[in-house]
Amino acid sequence: MTISNENCLSLANRIGRVRPLDEQAMQMADSHLANLTKPPGSLGKLESIARQVAGITGVIQPDLSKKAIIVMAADHGVCEEGISAFPAEVTPQMVMNFLSGGAAVNVLARQAGADVCCVDIGVNAELDHPDLYKRKLMHGTNNMAKGPAMDHATTVRAMLVGIELVEELYSKGYRLFATGEMGIGNTTASSAVMTVLTGCPLENTVGRGTGINDERLAHKIGVIRRAIETNNPNPEDPFEVVAKVGGLEIAGLAGVIIGAAAKRCPVVIDGFISSAAALVAAKLSPDSVSYMIGSHLSEEFAHGQLLKEIGLSPVIHMEMRLGEGTGAALCLHLVEAAQRIMKEMATFDSAGVSRS
User: Fold this and answer.
1) I want to staple 338 with a disulfide (CB 3.0 to 4.6 A). Which of 49, 181, 260, 277 is the partner?
2) Which segments of the chain have a pLDDT < 70?
């Protein structure tokens, strides 16, 4: 693919639209929270979320009732190195499971009143379904252990896919977004991205993914080390890092995050792969971190450190490591709880309760 100056300018324009949070709105949220019938700060993270959402949206009681979990699906050429417990064929099979409503994220999304938007950004199969967002850029990335996973132009376009999807959903009334993913081999790409962008040693960034044993874990570390040495990505250039050792869904989710921030919408970050995308977004647009809500602490080995690198504090810890957007789906309940506190809880004056 030839690099398009138009695409680069379009991406830069969207990144430029991300602004700091609205301080006045957050002060108004603080005042409102202080007047509610409770000791100051006693609702902990619910109050923090309420304040953050006010700063994101500019109002203290926004309507976040239309929620979308965007699941980016793509394959990884590095799977030919035998780094996963599951074959690559599982990716398209799971995409069809999402579309039929049978995956874990579908169940949890229904409970949370959210819609699952499944995107084929790079699955190595021809898929067809009326509810599938067809945005395929490649039939899976190239094997990063032998060369770049994709070129710069494809990386830029993948980020634009995420941004443009958020803009499309925003035009339909969606105001709260969450990230999800599917792609056998994507913890390998995510660990590589984390290693290069943070400088953390590989032994601290690589986990068991789908549940590999000690022997395959050592092999996975070796493959990632070879990929980084072969491609030598510049850690100061997030585009280059994602292009050389990342994945299409990682780039797409980075776009989702930037797109949500540009539209002043909160975006709930799922697990390890989504957090790798969040790290990329943070490197491209530091202000975008303020629009992210860290949903949960995954059991994937390096997730806690990755969240610290971004500057996110997970809301829940459920010992989960599935991905798909499942942790983010659970966190949507807590975002709604924070909003209900702001809208429905009585003040000291309205309830006739003494402050002291």
Assistant:
1) 49
2) 1-4
Token duo for residue 132: 């599938």
Catalytic residue among 47, 181, 324, 336: 324
d(CA 4, CA 8): 6
CA distances from 331 to 59, 162, 312 (A): 21, 21, 14
**Residue 81: active-site member:** no
67-336 under CATH 3.40.50.10210, yes or no:
yes
Q: What whole-number distance in Å separates Cα of residue 326 and Cα of residue 322?
A: 7
Q: Is the pTM of this model over 0.90?
A: yes
**Edge-first strand listing for the sheet containing 67-74:** 133-134, 114-122, 67-74, 176-182, 267-269, 292-294
Is residue 268 within 8 Å of residue 295, measured between CB atoms? yes
pLDDT tens for residues 84-98? 889 999 999 999 999
Looking at residue 335, what is its pLDDT? 98
CA distance 115 to 107: 11
- What's the confidence (pLDDT) of residue 2? 38
Is residue 62 within 8 A of residue 264, CB to CB? The reply is no
The CATH code for residues 5-61+342-351 is: 1.10.1610.10
Strand bridging mode 114-122 / 133-134? parallel
Q: Where are the domains of the chain?
A: 5-61+342-351, 67-336
Distance CA 51, CA 344 (A): 16
> What span, in angstroms and rounded, lies between the C-alpha atoms of 290 and 311?
9
The H-or-E segment that residue 134 falls in is strand 133-134
Torsion over CA: 261, 267, 271, 273 (sign): negative
What tokens does 156 get?
């830029």
